[in-house]
Write a structure and sequence with these properties.
The chain is of the alpha+beta class. The protein has a single domain (22-138), classed as HIT family, subunit A (2-Layer Sandwich), CATH 3.30.428. The protein is 39% helix and 16% strand. It has five helices and five strands, in the order αααβββαβαβ. It has a five-stranded antiparallel beta sheet with strand order 1-2-3-5-4, covered by helices on one side. A hairpin with an 8-residue loop joins strand 2 and strand 3 (70-76).
Length: 150
């Protein structure tokens, strides 16, 4: 039993080292999770924000660093660290985030001209707040999401 446990640990460690996040990112992520999400602090009114939508499940507000003329964050009040951490029971909540995005796009006059919805997950995507959130971007011509690989 101990031998198989050691083998499993070595396989897991090897997988993390080859395919995992950098040590610096992992440490930063764990520290941020331990200290609590900045979004939870906004939800609890411990930090200020320009809130544009709120109901029992979702809050939406203007981010500190806007990347388009219209840039809103759509955040579930339930703290879920990454999309990798969602449960089957979160399906309705994620669908509701999309519905809120549709409402906010219409309210901001970008539903017809076009907008982008984006959710970043972990290091390579640049996730820096470990509480899932969706970016609603629009109001001007948006470039490609990422450079093409030819």
């Amino acid at each position: 039993m101990k031998k198989s446990g050691i083998i499993c640990f070595m396989i897991l460690l090897n997988t993390i080292l080859i395919q995992g996040q950098s040590t610096e990112y992992q440490n930063n992520k764990l520290e941020k999770i331990k200290n609590g999400s900045v979004f939870t602090k906004i939800i609890n009114r411990e930090l200020p924000a320009t809130i544009v939508y709120e109901d029992d499940d979702i809050i939406s507000f203007v981010p500190l660093r806007q990347q388009a003329r219209v840039h809103l964050l759509i955040v579930p009040k339930k703290e879920i660290y990454t999309i990798n951490d969602i449960a089957d029971t979160d399906t309705m909540l994620l669908g509701k985030m999309m519905q809120v995005a549709k409402i906010l796009a219409k309210e901001n006059g970008i539903d017809e001209t076009g907008y982008r919805l984006s959710i970043n997950v972990n290091e390579d995507a640049g996730q820096s707040v470990f509480h899932i959130h969706m970016h609603l971007l629009g109001g001007n011509k948006l470039g490609p999401m990422v450079d093409r690989i030819d």
